[in-house]
Amino acid sequence: MFSMTKKTKITTIILPCACLVVIAGYLVIGNPAVFLNNHKLEKSVKSINSDTVKLNDIVPFDWDTVYTFEPYSSKESIEEVIGFKSADIKENNINEGLVHLLFVKDKKVVASILGYSTDLGYRIDFPSEVTFAENAQFNVTFADDITTLTYTK
Question: pTM of the prediction?
Answer without folding.
Answer: 0.80
